[in-house]
Amino acid sequence: MSSPTDRIIEPFRIKVVEPINMTTPDEREAYLKDAGFNLFRVPSEGVLIDLLTDSGTGAMSAEQWAGIMRGDESYAGSPSYHRFEAAVRDIFGFQHVIPTHQGRAAERILVATLVKAGDTIPNNTHFDTTRGNIEAAGATALDLPCPESKAFDVPHPFKGNIDLDALRKKLSEKNGSVPFAMMTITNNGGGGQPVSMANIRAASEICREAEIPFYIDACRFAENAFFIRSREEGYADTALLDIARETFSYADGCTMSAKKDGMANIGGFLCTNDSAVARQEEELLVLTEGFPTYGGLAGRDLEAIAIGLYEALDLRYQEYRHSSTSYLGEQISEVGVPIIQPPGGHAIYIDAKAMLPHLPVEEYPGQALVVELYRTGGIRGVEIGSVMFGGRDPKTGENFYSDYELVRLAIPRRTYTKSQIDYVVDCIKDVHRRRSELRGVRIIEQPERLRHFTALFEML
Ligand SMILES: *Cc1c(COP(=O)(O)O)cnc(C)c1O
Q1: According to the model, what pLDDT value does residue 434 have?
Q2: Model-level pTM?
Q3: Which atom in ligand 1 lies closest to the alpha carbon of residue 105?
Q4: Would the N or C end of the chain have less CB density within 10 A of its end CB?
């Protein structure tokens, strides 16, 4: 370190504190038993460090709280909507801005407007709610991740990229069944990995040639802009705002969850440049979300998002955000914990299959690791493996399993300090030392769909 001011520190100070319930090992064991060893069923007061998700769990700034007080709750024509619309237009550049209560509502309205049964929507990797909305419409959600994304332990600067050849091939089979293509930035389903500007530009050109709209799932657009600035040639001196503007200049519309890089606790929006599509979407919006100047949100939420979108593009904030995520990844991979390399923007993904080779997939190594992290230190992560993506064939009663067994530790924005992240590192290292003693789990009760939320387990 050349100068003390080169050190990256939290670029904020704490104004409001929320106590953490420092549970004892006995209390955690009781919480686990009551929850059937399913961390989704543990009440949050039983959690010390909650890394379940970065969605809507961050801390808002003093400016955002000031915006909350300024919020105008008029049913129609609220100035809060106009501030929100101006911010979204300024950053994203789209003509029509439709507020929704969160990202999946934007997806539902987009799908209801443009997708019919039998269609296919390509994406680098669909997020699960995007996939759910497309499949509920009787269409196919096609994932086309780049080949580099498949090797978890081999670093690559833009593992979130879409496979351009596969996209070109899909669109050349042109039979009118692809109403639009999508790109998810960063690629959440693929480890929070970034997409390069070159890949976004090329995917956009392929879609223009095929004459289909190109949409961006923009949830972590600011984190992706920071990755482009730090890893892609030609962007080292470009402001994150300008990188974001260039990103969206290649797209015809976007869906957004403001619970991510909107830095808010709730909210989302849907954008398009197509006035006819926007009119249809606003009709649906009125039916299920609300009047077009508030969507599913209160005026105060619109204010918080309008301010948060710019805060996410602050370079000092992104430097801190990325350094805290990569710090966690580096500290644990140094002692041999296998993670998706390099660390993503919002989360670290531990490869539980590689870490616990003595546990067969039938014993759910990801769930076993999630349980042990909680038992050891009250840390809550989430299994992304066979509990989430496996299941039981309703016809044969046979179990099927996911190709991978990951544990995601997602970092809420501006929420935990470095010493708290050090505590997480210590707990993971401790579990890693005892990894050969970890026992698997068995499912004793499960619903037919989305079983990871409610299934009950038993330790083997
Ligand atoms: C969270 C998320 C969504 C859905 O947004 P919600 O606000 O949770 O409904 C869609 N896409 C991606 C990539 C996400 O991370």
Answers
A1: 98
A2: 0.95
A3: 9
A4: N
